Amino acid sequence: MRNKDCRFLFLSTFYDLQNRPNMELSTFQKELNDNNPFDFSALKAVFLNCTLKKSPENSHTAGLISMSEGIMRANGVATEVIRPVDHQIAFGVYPDMTEHGWDRDDWPAIQDKVMEADILILGSPIWLGEKFSIASLVIERLYGYSGKMNNKGQYAYYGKAGGCLITGNEDGIKHCAMNILYSLQHLGYVIPPQADAGWIGEAGPGPSYLDKNSGGPENDFTNRNTTFMTWNLMHLAQMLKQSGIPAYGNQRDAWDNRSNKDHPNPEYR
User: Fold this and answer.
1) Region annotation Disordered: residue ranges (predicted)?
2) Helices (H) and strands (E) in the chain — how many of each?
3) Is 60 exceeded by the pLDDT of residue 112?
4) Who has the most CB within 10 Å: 83, 185, 238, 257?
5) CATH assignment of 3-256, given 3.40.630.30, 3.30.460.80, 3.40.50.12780, 3.40.50.360?
6) What residues does each domain of the chain span?
7) Do 169 and 207 touch, CB atoms closer than 8 A?
C-alpha cells in the first residue's frame, strides 16, 4: 500500500474511532457474547459507512454500525470502519482510476482493506427511497475488482461474506438492502440469512437514528435483526474461511480454455 494511501486511511479510521458512537449492547446481546462457544478470532470485518457526512461529523448510520461492530469485537473479530466520503475516490469501474486519466484515486487503499477482510458490511442512509450516492460509487469500485481471480481461479470475492445496514427517516430499508445485497452476491460475495438490518422513523421529516427520543437505539425489531445479521455473518465467514467455495464448475480459466466451444458467443454485425 502506498504511503499516502496509508495516511489517508489512518486519518479516516482515527476520526471515526474518536467520533463514532459506542452503542451499549443489551443484556441478552452481552449474554450471547459471553456464552459464545465459537472462535471467531481469525476473522476480519470491514464496515464501509456510505454516509455523506465527513469525519468527525456525527453519522446516524455509524450508530447502527457500532452495534454490529460491538458484537463482532466482543467475539474477537478484528474490525475497521471506513467512511469513503473522507477520501477522494474517482468514478469508474477499474481497480485504479489513475491509470485511466484521474490525477488521484484513494480507492485502491480501501480495496486492499476489503480484500484482507472476511466480512464486508455496507452501511447507507436512505435518500428518496434509494441508497446514498456514495454507496453506488462504492459498489461501482468494488465491481472494478471483481474480474480479478483468487488462488483457486475463482473470482476474487469468492469465500467472503457480505451484509448491509440501512438508516433513515423515510421508507426504503428493504429496497436499499435488496439492491446492495444483490450487487454483493453478483460480485461473488456469499450472503447469509437475514443479512440486512435497518431503522427508519416516521414517514416524512422527523428524528434520525441517534437523535434524542428517536426510539432508534431502543427499537427491538432493529436490534434483533442487527444481532441476527452480525452473528450470521460471523458464522458464515468462519465456515467459508475453513472450507471456502469448492473450486469446481466456477473457474474462469477452465471456462475460457475449454476444448469444446459448441456454444460460442454469437458474432454481431
Assistant:
1) 250-269
2) 8, 6
3) yes
4) 83
5) 3.40.50.360
6) 3-256
7) yes
What b/e readout covers 141-169, taking b as 16+ CB neighbours within 10 angstroms? bbebbeeeebeeebbbbbbbbbbbbbbbb
Q: Residue 87 carries which DSSP code? A: S
Grid cell 472450507 — which residue?
Answer: 243
With left for phi above 0 and alpha for psi between -120 and 50, is residue 129 left, alpha or beta?
left
Cell numbers 465491481: residue: 143
DSSP state, residue 101: T
Confidence label for 20 from pLDDT (cuts 50, 70 and 90): low
Best CA proximity match to 188, nearest among 113, 115, 84 = 115
- Taking the C-alpha atoms of residue 123 and residue 106, their distance in angstroms, rounded to an integer, is 19
Contact 203, 170 (CB under 8 A): yes
Residue whose C-alpha cell reads 458484537 in the numeric block: 71
DSSP 145: T
Cell numbers 416516521 correspond to 202
Residue 121 three-state SS: strand
All three cell numbers of 224 = 434483533
Q: Rounded to two decimals, what is the model's pTM?
A: 0.90
